[in-house]
Amino acid sequence: MEAQRLLSGFCSTSPIPNAKTQFFVKYSSPSSSTTSFAQSHKWVSFKARPLSTKLIKCTNTTHTETAEVVVSSDSYSQDSIGGILRKKLAVFVSGGGSNFRSIHEACLNGSILGDVVVLVASKQGCGGADYARDKSLPVIVFPKTKLEPDGISPADLVATLRGLEVDFVLLAGYLKLIPVELIQAYPISILNIHPSLLPAFGGKGNYGMKVHKAVIASGARYSGPTIHFVDEHYDTGRILAQRVVLVLAKDTAEELAARVLREEHALYVEVTKALCEERIIWREDGVPIIRSKENPAEYS
Ligand code: GRF
């Protein structure tokens, strides 16, 4: 892995056009799409991903009307802080989506220099998808299954995220395996949150309440969320941030889960903020660390 890399995006931003009915989004091709960042030994430059001209189907509410909405890169405002452009985020959920909500709210209140531009759900009917529809955010179902026939293919998922100029993908309680096509399309740009201190209590099958039950049964006195980069396997990508939560002697799994979840909300917002502000640095040995905003000489 290249040393000292700093994650960088390259997009300006705009909220997805409001649409209270089911709608289609049509992407326009950019006239020119090359943007590079200044290079130094600490930075790498990126080229803007070209927009594809594509008609995608997004689900929104129970209405059946359709409308065509043109999302053009030209229509995005150049909102930035200190030369750093706002980032576009795709959040993936399978359940209630409380982490998604806290990230979305932090984007809206200005804490995060970014916007959630699309919600990817593994099922139409989940709390996260309902919240997104309520907020007029496009909802995409992935993957396609017997129960979710409106789901899209991995290739269409990648094309859709690229069409929306998504910079970073945030998994927030998404239970399906991320296709290799997406991992290759978004190198070092996909984060996941796991409700234990990885590498403990992670891996396939370790999700939800099972994690907290296993933590309590093990006798561990500490638990807490981990945010890590996503690779081809479950919970094995590079650890970026953790928070410690006490496991109390008489904790039930539900009580521990609630305490960990509170920390998750704060941690995911904090990390997403750093990600969007390009404060994630890759140490020589390949470990990602976060530069403090208040004191740029400090890292965590
Ligand atoms: C969280 O505990 C997260 O760590 C795990 O799934 C849960 C999602 O919760 N990956 P929510 O849907 O964000 O409320």
From TrEMBL:
Pathway: Purine metabolism; IMP biosynthesis via de novo pathway; N(2)-formyl-N(1)-(5-phospho-D-ribosyl)glycinamide from N(1)-(5-phospho-D-ribosyl)glycinamide (10-formyl THF route): step 1/1. GO terms for biological process: 'de novo' IMP biosynthetic process. One of its GO terms (cellular component) is chloroplast. It is found in: Plastid, Chloroplast. Gene3D superfamilies: Formyl transferase, N-terminal domain. One of its GO terms (molecular function) is phosphoribosylglycinamide formyltransferase activity. Pfam families: Formyl_trans_N. It catalyses: N(1)-(5-phospho-beta-D-ribosyl)glycinamide + (6R)-10-formyltetrahydrofolate = N(2)-formyl-N(1)-(5-phospho-beta-D-ribosyl)glycinamide + (6S)-5,6,7,8-tetrahydrofolate + H(+). Its EC number is 2.1.2.2. Residues 87-272 form the Formyl transferase N-terminal domain. Signal peptide: none annotated. NCBIfam families: PurN. Belongs to the GART family. PANTHER family: PHOSPHORIBOSYLGLYCINAMIDE FORMYLTRANSFERASE (PTHR43369:SF2). This is Phosphoribosylglycinamide formyltransferase, chloroplastic.
